[in-house]
Amino acid sequence: MSTDTTPELTPEQLAEIERKYDPETAFRTTGKSLGFLIAATLVAMSVYHFYASGFGLIREILHRGIHISFVLGLVFLLFGYRKTDAALAPKAWYRLEGVPLIDILFALLAVAAAMYLPLLSPEALARRVGNPSPIDIFMGSTLLILTLEATRRSVGPTLPIIGLVFIAFAYFGPYMPGALKHGGSSWLGIINHLYMTNQGIYGIAIGVMAQYVFLFILFGVLATRIGLGQLFIDFAMVIAGRFSGGPAKVAIFSSAFMGTISGSSIANTVTTGALTVPAMKRVGYPPHFSGAVEATASTGGQITPPIMGAAAFIMVEYLEIPLRDVLAAALFPALLHYFGIFIMVHLEAKKLGLRGLRAEELPKMGIVLKDHWLSLIPLIILVYLILSGKTPDFAAVYGIIACVVVGFLNPNHRLSIKDLWDTLALGAKNTLAVGAAAATVGVVVGVVTLTGVGFRLGYVVIQTATDMGTTLSSLPVLGYFSVTQWALFCSLIMIAISCIIMGAGIPTTATYIILVAVAAPALAQLQVEPLVAHFFVFYYGVLADITPPVALAAYAAAGIAGSNPFKTGNTAFRLGIAKALVPFVFVYSPALLLVANGFTWWAFTVTLIGAMLGIASLGVAFSGYFFALLKTWERWWIALVSFLFIAPGLATMGVGILLMLPIVLMNIKRGKQVRAPSSTG
Length: 681
Known about the structure:
The chain is mainly alpha-helical. Among the domains are: 16-157, no CATH class; 600-681. 71% of the residues lie in helices and 1% in strands. The protein has a two-stranded antiparallel sheet. The longest helix has 31 residues, at 650-680. The chain is globular and about 80 Å long. The model is unreliable at 1-5 (pLDDT under 50).
């Protein structure tokens, strides 16, 4: 057993780790006066969104314009040209309290360009769409360039590069190869579509951020401040801490709970990992495994209702279905993700002979509830309003009000006026990167609608998959499946790989919106239901957070664990393999999503049991342990058989169990033989 004595990290060290691996939190340091002005602007941003969503009646394009102006203006004040910008000559003549004068100019230009269009009268705007004036072109070009730069600063270079590639695709259409060739568009046409209409920067992505996502991020910050996060961690320790390998199971439960109020993988990793990673190391888990468990569990926050990293609200807009239906569809796939991690953590603990936490290391349930029960009220109100059919912004507004009231009343986490000010500022700060990313995603989606590239790419994917299916169906044994079945399977594989690659280093919500625009048409041509197609691309976009070489959540966890980042990322991917299996399950059996067409409880039950067997089998294969260590060929056999559960059904389930049963029985016998000497000695 490990006797790790690595000291727990200080809050400052944890903040530095989050800053290092999460560009969304790499804020620059400013002087006192300018810092106060920025804080006041952030608070004003929170108050405005609270008022506009809860009580105001503001024209759609004006609301979106105000949101963009807040986001871009503050990004240029709070994010440097590069990460080291804050340390470069803070008192130089070209800086005002640490902020370069050029950034202040960019901030003012961004606000002017963002507000120019919304301040036009509806009649004037209608006359100019399709025939923009020179000043329209100038303002549109300015906003487009500054949006890409703001996204680069706050999110990283990947998403802006994708935006530039799509713009180039729109401009150089006649020179594109094969099915991607199109008529092309002039710069005037591009700016007209991306700036003058609601199909680009002012499109659905930024609209959802302004209307819903901002409020839910603010709710999560307030709920954490009044003690809900601490309640989740303590409650997880009470539930799972005493069992074998307890701290790792605490990480799973606490991250699952935290995922209900936070949509950030890295923030979840740092918040819960500060406690769970050192505890895992103390009971004997290797450092890289400790970090991987926390990272994998924390990415589950992106797929856990009710916030789901903002993706739930995008689905509501695209699919035009109630939020409660999206949350219902997300529930069991999220539980299967945590079930998969739990299986592998449990097997690893048994293999290493790890203990749980001692009674003196665990909090007492009575004390936990006594100290924190009030902090549950806002979450209960939020979930109740959503389930009762209220709009997401209505539920969020009253959830925020409940947070403030509880904060002022709760003696254990008292919220002062200064605390409220700081929390409102922090909530707005946490929305800047995702807001900038949403504006750039609007550019990508705008090009897709301008050129029809989504259907073109869909055609290429289907054609390639059909050719592969024709080849595979002609082979012995594999010919049991038809060309259509192989085409669907090959299409899913290609789209899944594309999602993981596209998601590397890009916020999950941005990845999801791009992939829905580009990949969903291919799935639609394969007769995959829209809700299922949306969940499929979303899940694989999330998987990028724990998929090397850009596994940001795993790298943040490695910073806490003091382990090799790449080794931690590889282990996290292995632990999260269930998340890679689940999307295939609900494509072949949509009943798992509860609200999909053709749902029956029988189909759901068979699918759920089959998925759990498949996930557990993969867990056994990857951990190399069941009741005793598995031989290499046994691991490969179990892994291959587990894929029979991808298309759940009684026949495939029965075949899978029969094929696996001999190995299971041999392993049980081997386990008894291993334990027998120790029990008699």
